[in-house]
Give the backbone structure.
Amino acid sequence: MIRPILEYGSVLFANCSLNDAQLIESVQRRAAILCTGAIRRTASVKLNAETGWDSLELRRNRAKMFLFYQIVHKIGPSYLSNCITPRNEQVRSSRSGSRNNMLLIEPNCRINCYKKSFFPDCIKIWNSLSNVEVNSTSIGAFQYNLLKLAAYSSMPRQMDTIHYNKVLKGSAGRLITQFRLGLSPLRNELFCYNILDNPFCPACLECVESLSHYIFVCPVYSVQRETMLRDLASLVSALYTNFDISIDLNNRTEVIAILTRGINLAGQDQSKNLNVNLAVFNIFSAFIQSTLRFTRLYT
């Protein structure tokens, strides 16, 4: 409901200033924070990877080129097509997908504001495309070919967490998402983001409080840790028996990945994936709640 309003007529302000672009982007960033439960200082790149959302700037650049394709191929209004002029000399080649053979005359631009406006910028980009893009037979084919270019492709979403995210709930689920995004109430993470000036564990006061320290090392949580690892061992044994999946509980990196990202049962139906990930969430959330570490959340 909100993004269509932000993007209405976006091709007209695609050349907006950096400050304006950041202001527009902050609306989507705020929505991503609300949807994920992330702390406000979380990096935008991580938020976009978590949600699978493209930046609004990227979407504006795509929309601009989609419209320009229609203008060049005279699909749009004629008064727009009259604003561009093909070059007299056309570059020909026998090789498919070679240099653009639909080159346009680029206008002279004395000031940067005009250079970044719709027609000068689109003409420059158009002339840099190959025959594969400019000779697309339809707008759908052009969109498909353009999205294969690195400058217009989407950031890959973290699909390995798709089943786990469906079972995360409550304050524990929010904390697990924050662990995964790299900014949570753990003191070392807050220290790295200049939110706190003390990175040491408030429970043992001996070591820097990282996620690994909280889960595996802190002596204050040894009883809770023993229970969690015992429950994990039972789950891992069941996974090996039923799905032939082997997990090394002595590998801390692998255990952290399971607790924060869940388990993806490739080739299995959704119900089995959800049941396994719900078991992981219940084990980890029980550990989090029993430690009483996060009675106050930093937001």
Summary: DSSP finds 16 helices and no strands in the chain. Residues 159-291 form one domain. Residues 91-97 have pLDDT under 50 and may be disordered. The CA atoms of residues 172 and 289 lie 8 Å apart.
